[in-house]
Every structure is written in structure tokens, then in C-alpha cells.
Write a structure and sequence with these properties.
The structure holds two protein chains of two kinds. Chain A is of the alpha/beta class. Chain A contains eight helices and eleven strands. By secondary structure, chain B is an alpha+beta fold.
Chain lengths: 294, 556
């Protein structure tokens, strides 16, 4: 009777030893940073990202990869530290970061004086990324990173290890099949939404392409609530229909009216949603949704 | 043209180029009138001359002329700023109106002519040197300050041949207009009304009558111009308190040698500042080249602006070394003080696109701005604990040194509905702001986050400028709606660097109308939509109500 439990214990001990050997290079307090959502933390072998590693999000544009990676940066900076934003194309919109709850005082934006070609990055900016990753006062370095030389990638990894800084990079699809020095690599791809799904939800699929100490290939369908910003595991269409509760919502973001601010839409758990406002500058107008109902 | 903003009259012309003045633009003319005049003239003439409009910055003007005065100390040990007549007559008026500022430099070149091959040669070299720095200089040399000022302003064109007024030449003085006396506007107007246009006409009137009618200031100016009373030149004092320089026995272009000397000078200044508990915010390293013949070339200047004041050599030297490496790289053009349009390259430089190595004779290190390091430091990230502030400051210094001060920025939010105007990126290294902040004990203002109903109402990636896209609208049964702005987008044609794809829109959220007020400049009226394409892309598009065109503005 005790044999299975003894085997289990041996297995756990061996796993711990392997993990210790793999992670012994980590410098610093070895703290963990949440992946930005409980569902993502459950997939990660350590329940989060270790400090001092690189994480890649490989995605086409418009899949909310920026949003998901910025959530991790926010978690990393919650205990103090600057967030260095790499902005080679001068497209970073700080207002969106502020809406996500990031304090502006903690952001340092690095731009390039020359306009780079599509898919390339200035050498000075690569040097700046390396310097930022080395700095112990920086919690995370975030930004788009096109295809770079393998030597730079290795340099980034060593710099992050030395300081305990997180390197969070959103990368193009062209780097998908290339070797990487990232600890974790995600593939973000758009996902179709179900007919019964809450209109406030945006769906995206997250697949683990690479992760040290874990089985790759795991994927999860995420639902991102555009109102509250919460990230959860998406329910299947069957589950939605089975829940039997209508997700009645008033015109989601389509009501161009000046109503009370601060009213929030509840998450799609079958709870009736309240009317919410969308900021409008000048006048009240009929929306497409209202005309549909009419 | 330069314009200034008047609280009552709005935007007025502060200064205009000679071409603009020929077209009828005058100082204090309303900008709307000036622009209308320019448009009218450009329609009439066959050539389209581009015009540039900038806001006048009197503080920057003052700093620039002071900088020029210090640079011209190689020609004369006494270089002063013109004491503006309005400042003398009415200091309160001058203080209230920032437009009154020096526009001329006065130099004492007594006994210096032989060092430059004569006064004429000195004047020419001075003019050439100013041209290399980007200034069009009118140079005049005379026995008295007043006569030289008058000759420079009224006897020579800008950039024209320098004027040397012979000694005891009364004719030149008498031919000058009364404006050359640097009187107040009221006094000049009275003289012109009386029909007195030249100084010669003025000298024919008895002094007693002049004094009774126009005050003693007129006589003082006349006496200064004729040399009866002395008009000393007040040398322009530098703000810099710390300066160390070394003259090399033999000129060298070896980078290692230059670095060693610079390191020695920085060490000397650091020790001096530490004893006074000061830290440098702005460091300047000047490499003066060997003088070849009578030619004087502007020095190579390396400016180091720091995020946090420091007197630590180990902080300063790596940044200086980085700039030295870039400035002295063989085959590259080293950085100089702003070279103007008159800067001419040698034939060799023009042919090969690079300059020869510089032979440095003298090296100077100067701390232009310094503050007490024991004062309250600028509290960036003050609320967070466990932060290595020194390491962060050192990182910001290194990044600014390599990328440039303008490319290492911190975002601040602004009140504005238009997305492009709702934030501002300010350089983290701004010595003037840091010095001001350190001198005042002010708690940093925490910015409140913007109030949006959706966390994902704005994308992290804002495409600038917005890209025009083709959007088709959903077909409706009842088409009595004429205002297309409120019809949902049905499909969007988005171009990538590979091809142009048409994507159907599965869902859209909006519209969110954004309008700006007429007082904020060009009015903007847009209806924003968040659209989810059938390929799963979440985009931010808007319909411009003025141009009736759709644009892609962001990607989530």
C-alpha cells in the first residue's frame, strides 16, 4: 500500500532536484512574478515567471499580445522598479498603459532617433535594451523586438540573469521557428468568438511554444474582458448555452450618450449588465444597436 | 518668422527675416494678418518661397547670445552684452517685457590687432568664425563703443564687409542716423518729428536746448559716441564655477591621450566640488585644435547632461569616454558647435565625405551647472521602496548619453480628448528642470489615471500618423440616415507591407465621438470604433467627420 505513495514522493523529490539544477543559475532573490492571470500561472511550471528571464510573445498585430505582456510588466513593477519601454517606431501610447493602471512615474520610454526599416531595430536601441536589462533598479523591459542576431539574444539573457530583470518582448511571427534564449515563449493567435459570448469579451488563444521545465504545446483559450481588463479561461459555447442565463447587455460601448460614469459592466457570468457609458464629447446620438432594436 | 503670444492680442509677429520684411511683415503685426499677407504674395509671385514659423523663445535667445559671448573670448578677453537702452531708461518696463534683450555683442579689441594680423584681419576672422557657428554677423571697429555700435547697425549689411571706422573720423559719426544713438523710442520719435534725422543735424543744435527738450540721456549718448566720456564694456559673466584646462606640449589626435588628460581634469574638478558638497549637472569638455596660421576653428564640444547631479569621477568618465569615442572616431565627422549654413567644408571633406583627424592642443573641462548634492534629490519613483536610485540614475545617464537626451523620455498625461494630444513625452535629463526642482522643496505631483469606461478602450500601439483605410458600411433596410458616421463599419481594407487585405468586421463597438475645441487649434471631429475583424484582429479606427475618410489609428 505504501509503494505508490513512496513512488510519488520519489518522483516529486526527483522533480525538485531537476528543477534546482536547472534554476541554479538564477541570481537574486529568485522571486516570482505572476503571469498576469491565474489561468496563465497554472500553465507555468513554477506558477509564474522567475525573475531574471526573458519571455517572448510571438503574435500578429491586433491579438492583444501587447496587453497580455504589459500585464506581466505591471506585476513585475508592483513591488518597485522602473519599467523600460522600448519604442523603436514611436508608437507607444502611454494613455492606454495608464488605463491599465500603470503609474506614469515608473515608465521610461526609449526611442530611436532614426526611423528603422520594417522588421529591424537600431543598434543603439539594442544596446539600450541590454543596459536596461542589466540594471537592478529596472523591474521589466517591455517592447516590440523584431528578429535580432543570436548574439544579442544571448546577451539579453545573461544581462537579465545578472540583475533579476524581466525581459518581455512582443515578437513577429517570423521568429516562431527560430531558436531562442527566452525562458518561456508564447504563441498568441486570434480566436473566433462564440455566438452566445458576452459582447464585451475578446478571445485569443495562448499556446506555450517553449518553456524550461514544462511540456510545451499546452494552449488555452483566453477571454479578455474589455471593460474590466480581467483575463480568464474562456468558456466553451456549450457552457455558455448550458448556463441558461442570458447575458443581456445594453449597447456595449455603442451608446453614444452622456450617462453616469463609473457604472461597470459585470463579467459574463450570466449577471445582468448595467448600462455603461462611453465618453462622448459633444452630443447624444442614436447608435447602430438602438436602431437595430427599433 | 517668430511669433509671440500676447494675453490680449493673441499671436503677434516677434521677428521676421529680411525676406518677410520685404513682403510687408512688420513686428507686432497679428499672425493672422501676416499669414494672409504671405498667402496673397505667394499667389502673386511665380516662385513659391517656403516660410517657417516658430514661437519666439527669449530665454533661449539670451542663452544663445551668452554662449556666443563666451565662445568669442578667444578674440578678446572682454566680451559683453549690449546694455539695451530700454533697460537703462526703464528697468521696470524691461523686466515686465521679456522681449527686451541684448541683440549685439561688444568687444574690447584695444591693442589686439597685431595678434590677428591687423584690425581688418581681426574683423574678417571674427565674421568668418561667427559664420561657422551659424550667425550672420555685422562687424564694425571704432574708437568708441557707441560709434562701433552705430557703424555695425547702419553702415554694413548683415554678413557684409566689416567696417573699420578710422580714428577721429567725425564724418562717419555725423552721417549716422539718430537711431544709432540708442535712445528710447519716444526720444527718437520726437527727433524725427522735428526733422532731425542724422547725428550731424543734432550736433548743430546747442546742447542746452537739447538737454532741456530731450533730457540729459541724449547728451550722454552723444558724448559716449564722440569719446568725451567713457562707456565701459561689462564683460559677460559665466555661470560656470568650475573650470579646469590643460595645454598640451604637442598637439595630438590620439584618443587615449586625450582621455587620460580629460580624466585628470575631471578628477581635479570632482575633488574641488566634493569639498563644497556640490554635484555637476552639466559637464562640458572642450577640445581646442591647434591654431594653423591665422585660422581659428571652433572647438569640439562634448556636452554631458546628467539626470542626477554628481561629483563622482566614476560616474562621469564612462559617459565622457562614450562621447569621446563617437566624436573622435577616425573617418567620422566629429561633433561641433552648431554649424550654420555658411559652414564650408574643405575640398578634401567634400570629396571623401569625412574630415581629417583633429590635432588637439588644449583641453578644457567645465561644469556649467552644479547644485548641492545634499539637497533633496529629485524624487522619481519616490513612493516605491527597495529601489536602487543610484543605479537608475546611472542608467538614465548612460542611455541619454548614447541615445540622446530627446530619446530617453518619461510620459506625462495631459487633458485632451484627441489621442495624439493626450500625452506628452518629456526628456528625463533636463538640467534646468532638475536644478529648479532641487532648489525648491516641492512634492512631486502624482498623475491621476485617466477615467475610461473600458480598460481596453485605448490600444497600446498608436499608429502615427493615422493610416487611411477603406471601410465599407453595413447595408441597412431603412436608409434615411444621411449621417454616415453612425453606420457601423462592415468591412475594412487594411494594407500591410506585404499586401492589402480586406477583412470583414465581425463586431464593432462605438462610436465614441471625440471633438476638440476651436481654441485648441485645428478642430478635430472624429468617431472612433473598436472593430474586431473576422481574422480576430482588434483594431481602433475612426471616421473623420471633416474629411469623411476612415483611418486606422491603433492596434490592440
Amino acid at each position: 500500500m505504501n509503494k505508490p505513495s513512496a513512488q510519488l514522493q520519489n518522483l516529486q523529490t526527483l522533480r525538485a532536484q531537476v528543477s534546482a539544477i536547472e534554476n541554479q543559475r538564477t541570481v537574486g532573490d529568485g522571486g516570482m512574478v505572476s503571469g498576469g492571470a491565474a489561468v496563465i500561472d497554472r500553465i507555468l511550471p513554477a506558477g509564474g515567471y522567475r525573475k531574471g528571464v526573458l519571455v517572448d510573445w510571438i503574435a500578429p498585430t491586433g491579438c492583444a499580445a501587447d496587453f497580455l505582456s504589459m500585464r506581466v510588466a505591471k506585476e513585475a513593477a508592483s513591488s518597485g522598479g522602473a519599467i523600460v519601454i522600448i519604442d523603436p517606431n514611436r508608437q507607444f501610447f502611454p494613455v492606454a498603459a495608464a488605463a491599465m493602471g500603470l503609474p506614469m512615474e515608473q515608465l521610461i520610454v526609449l526611442q530611436s532617433s532614426s526611423s528603422p526599416d520594417a522588421g529591424s531595430i537600431d543598434q543603439d536601441l539594442l544596446w539600450a535594451i541590454d543596459q536596461s536589462l542589466r540594471c537592478p533598479a529596472v523591474a521589466a523591459v517591455w517592447g516590440p523586438l523584431p528578429n535580432v542576431d543570436d548574439r544579442w539574444s544571448r546577451r539579453f539573457q545573461l544581462s537579465a540573469e545578472s540583475s533579476g530583470c524581466l525581459g518581455l518582448f512582443v515578437r513577429p511571427l517570423s521568429v516562431a521557428r527560430q531558436p531562442s534564449w527566452a525562458e518561456v515563449q508564447w504563441m498568441v493567435s486570434p480566436a473566433a468568438r462564440g455566438a452566445a459570448a458576452d459582447p464585451n469579451l475578446f478571445f485569443t488563444r495562448l499556446q506555450m511554444v517553449r518553456c524550461r521545465g514544462s511540456h510545451t504545446g499546452q494552449s488555452v483559450l483566453l477571454s479578455i474582458n474589455t471593460v474590466t481588463g480581467s483575463v480568464r479561461k474562456a468558456r466553451s459555447e456549450y457552457e455558455y448555452r448550458r448556463s441558461g442565463k442570458s447575458n443581456r447587455t445594453v449597447a456595449n460601448g455603442g451608446r453614444a450618450s452622456i450617462s453616469s460614469r463609473g457604472a461597470q459592466v459585470q463579467s459574463c457570468q450570466g449577471i445582468q449588465s448595467k448600462a455603461h457609458s462611453v465618453s462622448v464629447a459633444a452630443r447624444v446620438a442614436d447608435t447602430a444597436a438602438d436602431r437595430r432594436r427599433a | 518668422m517668430l511669433f509671440r503670444t500676447d494675453s490680449r492680442k493673441g499671436k503677434l509677429v516677434a521677428s521676421a527675416s529680411p525676406l518677410a520684411r520685404r513682403l510687408g511683415i512688420r513686428r507686432d503685426m497679428p499672425m493672422a494678418e501676416a499669414k494672409a499677407l504671405l498667402r496673397h504674395r505667394s499667389k502673386q509671385s511665380e516662385e513659391q518661397t517656403p516660410f517657417f514659423l516658430r514661437e519666439h523663445d527669449p530665454v533661449a535667445d539670451r542663452e544663445a547670445i551668452e554662449q556666443l559671448a563666451w565662445t568669442l573670448e578667444k578674440f578678446s578677453p572682454v566680451v559683453g552684452l549690449e546694455q539695451n537702452f530700454s533697460q537703462i531708461d526703464n528697468r521696470k518696463k524691461a523686466k515686465a517685457n521679456p522681449m527686451f534683450g541684448p541683440s549685439s555683442l561688444l568687444m574690447d579689441v584695444t591693442g589686439l590687432g597685431h595678434l590677428f594680423g591687423g584690425l581688418e584681419s581681426l574683423a574678417k576672422q571674427l565674421q568668418t568664425f561667427c559664420g561657422q557657428l551659424g550667425y550672420l554677423a555685422s562687424v564694425a571697429i571704432a574708437d568708441t563703443t557707441g560709434l562701433a555700435w552705430g557703424a555695425a547697425h547702419f553702415c554694413s549689411d548683415h554678413g557684409g564687409y566689416p567696417v573699420i571706422v578710422p580714428a577721429c573720423d567725425q564724418e562717419v559719426m555725423e552721417a549716422l542716423p539718430v537711431l544709432a544713438l540708442r535712445l528710447s523710442a519716444e526720444s527718437t520719435e520726437i527727433l524725427l518729428k522735428l526733422g532731425i534725422e542724422t547725428i550731424g543735424q543734432l550736433l548743430q543744435i546747442q546742447r542746452v536746448q537739447l538737454s532741456a527738450r530731450l533730457g540729459s540721456h541724449l547728451l550722454k549718448r552723444l558724448d559716449q559716441m564722440s569719446g568725451r566720456i567713457d562707456e565701459p564694456i561689462v564683460a559677460c559673466q559665466r555661470d560656470a564655477e568650475f573650470l579646469a584646462e590643460e595645454i598640451l606640449d604637442y598637439p595630438t589626435s590620439d584618443r587615449e591621450t586625450i582621455e587620460v588628460v580629460v580624466s585628470r581634469l575631471v578628477d581635479r574638478l570632482s575633488k574641488e566640488m566634493k569639498t563644497q558638497q556640490l554635484g555637476g549637472l552639466q559637464w562640458v569638455v572642450r577640445l581646442v585644435e591647434q591654431k594653423i596660421g591665422a585660422t581659428v576653428r571652433p572647438p569640439v564640444e562634448l556636452r554631458l547632461n546628467l539626470f542626477q547631479p554628481t561629483a563622482d569621477k566614476s560616474h562621469v568618465m564612462p559617459l565622457v569616454a562614450m562621447q569621446l569615442e563617437q566624436a573622435l572616431l577616425p573617418g567620422k565627422i566629429s561633433r561641433r558647435i552648431k554649424a550654420g549654413p555658411n559652414f564650408k567644408r574643405s575640398k578634401r571633406q567634400a570629396k571623401y565625405g569625412r574630415r581629417a583627424g583633429i590635432e588637439v592642443q588644449r583641453i578644457a573641462v567645465e561644469v556649467v551647472t552644479c547644485v548641492r548634492v545634499v539637497a533633496r534629490q529629485r524624487q522619481l519613483f519616490d513612493e516605491t521602496s527597495g529601489l536602487n536610485k543610484q543605479a537608475l540614475a546611472a542608467l538614465i545617464n548612460r542611455l541619454s548619453s548614447r541615445l540622446g537626451v530627446a530619446n530617453v523620455v518619461s510620459p506625462t498625461l495631459r487633458k485632451g480628448a484627441q489621442p495624439e494630444c493626450s500625452y506628452r513625452l518629456k526628456p528625463l535629463v533636463d538640467p534646468a528642470a532638475v536644478k529648479k526642482h532641487l532648489q525648491k522643496v516641492v512634492a512631486p505631483r502624482r498623475q491621476l489615471p485617466p477615467s475610461f469606461s473600458h480598460v481596453l478602450s485605448r490600444p497600446l500601439k498608436l499608429i502615427q500618423p493615422p493610416v487611411p483605410v477603406a471601410v465599407t458600411r453595413r447595408v441597412r433596410v431603412a436608409t434615411d440616415q444621411k449621417d454616415t458616421a453612425f453606420l457601423e463599419p462592415a468591412s475594412i481594407s487594411v494594407s500591410s507591407h506585404v499586401n492589402r487585405t480586406v477583412q470583414a468586421i465581425g463586431q464593432s463597438w462605438g462610436p465614441e465621438r471625440i471633438e476638440t475645441g476651436w481654441w485648441q487649434g485645428k478642430m478635430v471631429r472624429r468617431d472612433y470604433w473598436r472593430v474586431l475583424t473576422d481574422q480576430g484582429r482588434l483594431l481602433w479606427v475612426f471616421y473623420d467627420l471633416k474629411t469623411q475618410q476612415w483611418y486606422l489609428h491603433g492596434e490592440f
